UniProtKB/TrEMBL annotation:
GO terms for biological process, alphabetical: dATP catabolic process; dGTP catabolic process; dTTP catabolic process; dUTP catabolic process; response to stress; TTP catabolic process; UTP catabolic process
Designated name of the protein: Nucleoside triphosphate pyrophosphohydrolase
Occurrences of domain NTP pyrophosphohydrolase MazG-like (ranges): 27-100, 170-225
InterPro entries: MazG-like_dom, NTP-PPase_MazG-like_C, NTP-PPase_MazG-like_N, NTP_PyrPHydrolase_MazG
Species in which this protein is naturally found: Brevundimonas lenta
Family in the record: Belongs to the nucleoside triphosphate pyrophosphohydrolase family.
EC supergroup of this enzyme: hydrolase
Organism domain of life: Bacteria
EC numbers: 3.6.1.8
Pfam families, sorted: MazG
Gene Ontology MF, one: ATP diphosphatase activity
Amino acid sequence: MTPVDRLIAIMAQLRAPVGGCPWDVEQTFETIAPYTLEEAYEVADAIERGDMDDLKSELGDLLFQVVFHARMAEEKGLFVFNDVANAIADKLERRHPHVFGEEDAKIDGAAQKVRWEDIKAAERKDKEQHGVLDDVPVGLPALARAAKLTKRAARVGFDWPSTDEVFDKFVEEVAELRAEIAAGDLDKAKDEMGDLLFVLANLARKLGVEPEDALRGANAKFIRRFHFIEAALAQDGRTPEQSDLAEMDGLWDAAKAAERA
């Protein structure tokens, strides 16, 4: 029995109405989907930390999610795990004609990226998804989806020529947000905040930066510097609650300086 066959058999046992795990038996596509997203994020986190042992474990957890969904589909007579594996194998061969087909095998990375998008566009047409934005997944994190939406629109020419225009739009959106805050209209302020975040996602896309990656980095930086503040205060036997903003701001600057050293 291969490791994958063993995993599939374990999943079948967990879902067995008699002798299975009650929690696993109760699950549906909808209830498992959040766990699938969580496991994908944990894979990204392990990569970010450079922890290869943890990455191995997290990839296993993510694979289990695939097996879980495939098992539920098999129970409904929809498809089985091998159908999932064959579907991605077919897609990879179809989207790499320069490797598996008759096209020039010496195609460079930039040309391949364009060719990939052309093949995906043809696939959308075959699936009767005629809109440019039709298959951008709703379940993506909002910042990542915003960047993908602007990328897709840019492919058909709906894009600013440079980052200058994006910065102009950013300034405009900041002014509109401040106006709604000053007016006390929090519903409109929320709307303007969304516009501002969308512009930032677009700017990230223009710079070739994944906004989710950038924000994860900022989160990690904030945690690292705040830990510096806590450690500095602890040397005096104090906590942040026993400090004030001016002191903590000074320690924040010290943390930044220490990182640059």
